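Posted in: Protein Modeling Q&A

I'm a second-year student putting together a small comparison for a lab meeting, and my supervisor asked me to include a predicted structure for RNA polymerase subunit sigma-24. I've never done this before, so apologies if this is the wrong subforum. The sequence is pasted below exactly as I got it from our records. If anyone can share the structure token output, I'd also love a short note on what stands out.
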Amino acid sequence: MLDAREAAGRAHRAEWARIVAALTRRFGDLDTAEEATAEAFATAVERWPADGVPANPGAWLTTTATRKAIDRIRRENRRDDKQQEAGVVYDDDPPEPDAIGDERLRLIFTCAHPALATQTRVALTLRMVGGLTVPEISRALLVREAATGQRITRAKAKIKAARIPYRVPRADELPARVSGVLAVLFLIFNEGYLATGPGTDPVRPGLTAEAIRLTRLIRALMPEDGEVAGLLALMLLTEARRTARVSASGELVALAEQDRASWDAALTAEGHRLVRERLDSGLAPGRYQILAAINAVHTSARDIRETDWSQILALYDQLVRLDRSPIVALNRAIALGELHGPEPALEVVDGLRDGLADYHAYHATRADLLRRLGLAQESRVAYDKAIELAGNTAEIAYLTRRRDQLG
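Accepted answer (user: helix_wrangler)
Welcome! Here is the predicted structure, written out as tokens:
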């Protein structure tokens, strides 16, 4: 039974977005696609332990989901209406010469349509493409679960009412559309890189791989776009370290303690090449390009002691002019602490409390700075709060060990 449930979990990670996209393409309705896909996976969890895992789980799930969708349409006695709606959003036109016929890419551009508010686009795409649950999305966006659920429901209704087309935008539409898509892909990647769900694996390589794959497709559509290249470089340089980030006992391994020889050399080299290409262009970098450059500095050092923290701090100084979010300020404070010591860094971090009080990394950063200052009791309190808020099992194990080392 355990093997069948594990197979269903693996299939969910690998097939969710593809099945939702295929059903959206066929039936032209996000609600129908999502609910039928969810029902198919529920059926798999129920039947596979008794019947055995099918030879092709993806095909089995797609067939089952399609039948569920048809049954749902028939139950609602709205088949003609659904078919008419499908005819409106189904893209029968031949693709543009530079378009890529990938259903998941179509789904992303539909969910990230500019008719929707930015946070709504992100929540909907994380659900429909990433397959994340409402609690996982809420943690990723630092919002309440009720608000996330409402955003997703309203977004699907608006797509339906506004007859937003299910297609990759034309070449002339891409520049105005791509920033929202990149933001979503970055969040999908982050959820895979450091999963927030308490019942999930600490790292979800299926999500990181899908985010990288889709970003490569967008780069093929927009090869000259610096931010697309920057995001791809950022993902590659981060993914290169994945196998070194969790120990055999399931604990997060901090960057300073990672075995750098185990980093993926090919991904690192490709990421560095993309960063150099953007630097050589002479164009002012955007947010993702700066983040990629920061990661390039980290991955260029053979040892943590060789890290050029002054360059990293200078890059963060550049980034805060583009992105004034408290999370960027928090990361800058970490670099400040490495370069100038924990005291000035703690002063900056304490000033960010109002915006990050519910963010576990804020308290983890503060705990480490307090530890370095010899303030063990205050550090313990901060570690306790970080552990309470963290959703990643490997990170919780790491924070717990660090707290317990205080004595």
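A couple of things worth pointing out for your meeting: The CA atoms of residues 134 and 404 lie 33 Å apart. The first helix runs from residue 2 to 27.
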